[in-house]
Amino acid sequence: MAQDDWLADRFEEHRSHLRAVAYRMLGSVNDADDAVQEAWIRLSRSDSSAVENLGGWLTTVVARVALDMLRSRTSRHEEPVGELPTAPTDDGTSGAQPEQAAELADSLGPAMLVVLETLSPAERIAFVLHDMFAVPFDEIAPIVGRSPAATRQLASRARRRVQGVDIVTPHDRNRTRRIVEAFLSASRKGDFGALLALLDPDVVLSADADAVRAGATELVRGADAVAQTFSGRARAARLALIDGQPGAVWASGGKPRVVFRFSFDDNKITAIELLADSARLDELDLVPLDD
Questions:
Q1: Domain range holding 202?
Q2: How many folded domains does the chain comprise?
Q3: Which residues are within 8 A (CB) of 164 and not within 5 positions of it... i.e. 6 or more apart?
């Protein structure tokens, strides 16, 4: 048997598992097949003789591809959830039969898909790999770029949301994203009135010790004072998802330096937290968004 045929046969042994992993990460049968196909392309271009555990290697590749797809989807402000996934047609290359695609879609109900869509990309990867496929945290950590302890926290946050605690729907996330966008725009323009309109009268601005050392005020209370603080500022801050929720980040030299975390009540900002502690920033899942 030719080497290419042998490798293809080995890959086919793992295809069903890889599609199940990819689907639970991406919530789309078509996207799952794209991720699996990308894994095959990478395998065919690699030195497979150096791979000791082919199944584990392929699972890692699919997870990395899925993470990139989720982050790209998020940065483009896509909302794929809203209807059940459709089964892809079989073109002879994806290995997907309509009945298999339907079975795969049925394995993850629409309610679970909606909940998973509220997770940040890294939370979703950590939760799916650990809780659904029993992958150890020390193997997931390099995929999401976190320490094993931080990866455990990602999965724990995801688990709480899946169990119904502190769920933020995609609709809520869109609404709060628009509020943050408006806040950053008003701050850059020095539009004091627009800032006041976005802030709760009792809004609180707080900063961690590192942010204070960089020049921030430790605690500011009240809409007038917070609006004064930000009027004409935040010019370098950019919209981002902070652990799956809309916020902002200031980066320098390609590295995040300060994160702006927001809290909301209806359409008002009730709190802004400035984080500059590098250890804490490393624990956050930061996804830049198109501003």
A1: 170-288
A2: 2
A3: none
Residue 89 sits in the same domain as residue 22: yes
User: 148 lies in a domain?
Assistant: no
Say whether both 272 and 180 belong to one domain.
yes
Distance CA 92, CA 79 (A): 29
Structure tokens at 75: 């940065």
Q: Is residue 220 part of a domain?
A: yes
Q: Are residues 12 and 111 in the same domain?
A: yes
Q: Is 240 among the domain residues? A: yes
Measured distance CA(202)–CA(221) in Å, rounded: 7
Which residue has 């959830």 as its token pair? 81
Residue by residue, pLDDT tens for the chain (291 residues) are 456 677 888 889 999 899 989 988 988 888 999 999 999 999 888 877 777 888 899 999 999 999 999 888 776 655 544 444 443 333 333 344 555 555 554 555 666 777 787 788 888 999 999 988 889 999 999 999 888 888 888 888 888 877 764 555 556 778 888 999 999 999 999 999 999 999 999 999 999 999 999 889 999 999 999 999 999 888 889 999 888 788 999 988 878 999 999 998 878 999 999 999 988 888 788 888 865
